[in-house]
Amino acid sequence: MLRLGVVPIVRPLFRGSKLGLETRSLEALRALGLKLGFELAYTAEPVADEAQAQAAARAAQAANLDLLLIQHVTFSTGEVFVPLLELPIPVGLWALPEVWDRGPLPQNALCGLNLGVSLVGAQGSPASRIGPVKWFYGHVEDPWFQARLELSLGALRGARVLRSGRVLWLGGTAPGFFAFETPIETGLMVERASLDELWLALERIPDLAVEERLEALGEPTAYSKEELRPTLRLELALSQLAQGYDGVALREWPEIPEKTGVMAYSAMARLADQGQVWAAEGDLLGLASMLALNAVSGQPSILLDLSHLSSRGLMLWHGGEAPKAWTDGPTRLVPHFNRGVPAVRDMSLRPGAVSGIRLLPDRRAVVYGGALSGEKGYDGNSGWMTRASWADQDLNPEQFLASWLNHRIPHHMVLGMGSHQPALMELCAWLGLKVLPPSPEEWGLVWPR
Q: Does the keyword Isomerase apply (predicted)?
C-alpha cells in the first residue's frame, strides 16, 4: 500500500482553525484509504509557525512517505509550509472548502492554496527550485477530490516501482538491438546475469516437475507431450531465475532456440499468466516501462512491434508471449512463425481502450494510447490499433506512426489495458521525465539530436 502523510496548517486568527476540520477530514481520508489502497502513515498536529513546520518536516521524511499532503485548513503564509515543500518526496497542497459562505470569512483556505502554488518555482521565492507539486481542493467525500487523488495514487505506484524496484537483465540484449543498451535513470536496481545461469537452471529442473507441468498444461496445441517437454522445462527454469525480482529482461534468441530447440515465448506467456513480468530481446527500458504501466493500470502490460499500416489501422504484433488476460478469445500453442519450433501463444488482442508509456534515455518518455479493434492479424499475439493518441492528443494511425518514427523511439511499444494517459504523464512529472510531444510531420528528415 502507498504511504500517505498529512500536515494540517492553520492561522489561529481564523475561526476555521478552531472547528476541528482537520480531525474530521483525516477520519474520512483513512476510510478512503481502505477503498483506494493507501494508508495514513503519518499525521501531524496542526502547524501554525515555521518551527512547528520544520519539526513536522523531519517527522514526515522519517516516515518514508509516497505522498505528503499539506492541508490548508485555513490561510497561511509561506514560511509556515515552505519547509514541507522542500522535502525530497512528492507533495500535494490541499485546501478544505469554507464551512459557510456569509458573514465573517471562516478559513480563507483556497486563498492559502493559491498562495502556496504561486510560490513554487517563483523567482526569488524560497520555493523557487521546488517541484513538482500537485494541488487538491475539496472535502474527502467530493468526487473531484477523489478523482484527482486516485489519479495521483496510480502515478505514484508507477513512480515507486521505478525508484525502488529490482530487475534482472538475463543475457543482455538481442544481437544488433543497440537502442536497448541504455541505462535506467530512475533508481530501478538492475542486476545482470549471463545465459550460463539459465543453462545451469535447466539442468537442475527435475523430470517429475516437468511431467507435473505437462499434465496441467490446459492449453490447446497440436504438439505432442514429447515435443512440449523442453519448453516446459525452460518455463520452470525461467520461473526460478525470476524469483525475487520485479521483472526480467531476457535475451531469448538466438542462443535459447539454438541450445534447447525451443523458443521461450510460450514459457514467457504462461509465466505472465502467473503475474511475472518478462520483456523480450533484453529490452531493459521496455521492462521498466512495463513495470510502471502495470503499477498504474493494475493489469499486465505487453511489448509489441509496430508491424504494418493499412486502411484498417496500425498492426501491433509480437512473437507470442502475451498473457491470456489480453484476449477474450481462444489461445493455442503453435510453432514460431520463422523457426518452426515450439512454441508461441497464438491469440488476438482483445478490443478496447489501451494506453502506454515508453521510457527513453536522457530522462525522456513518450505517453500514448488508443483503441484496439479486436481483429486478429499475424500469428502470435496481434491486433489492429484503429484510434491513436499521443500525450492525450488524438492522432490518426498515420500521424501516430510518423511521431513514433520521427522521435526515433525504440521498436517495442509497451501497451496496457485501459485509459491511463493522465496518470502516466503525472508519473513522468514526479520522476522529472520530459514527455515528448507528438511529431506527425510526414515529409521531414530524421536528424541527429
A: yes
Q: What is the CATH number of the domain that holds 80?
A: 3.40.50.10940
DSSP SS3 for 192: strand
81/328 Cα distance (integer angstroms): 51
Which residue blocks in 261-378 are alpha helix, DSSP H?
Answer: 265-273, 284-297
Distance CA 299, CA 224 (A): 32
Per-residue pLDDT band at 441 (split at 50, 70, 90): confident
pTM of the full structure: 0.96
Cβ neighbours of residue 86 closer than 8 Å, sequence gap 6 or more = 57, 126, 127, 130
- Same domain assignment for residues 372 and 235: yes
Helix (H) or strand (E) holding 51: helix 50-62
Q: Which of 109, 141, 173 is the last residue of a domain?
A: 141
Helix axes 421-431, 143-164, angle to 10 degrees: 50
pLDDT at residue 255 is higher than 80: yes
* Residue carrying the nine cell digits 520555493: 127
Rounded Cα distance between 437 and 389, Å, is 11
Cα Rg of the chain (Å, integer): 25
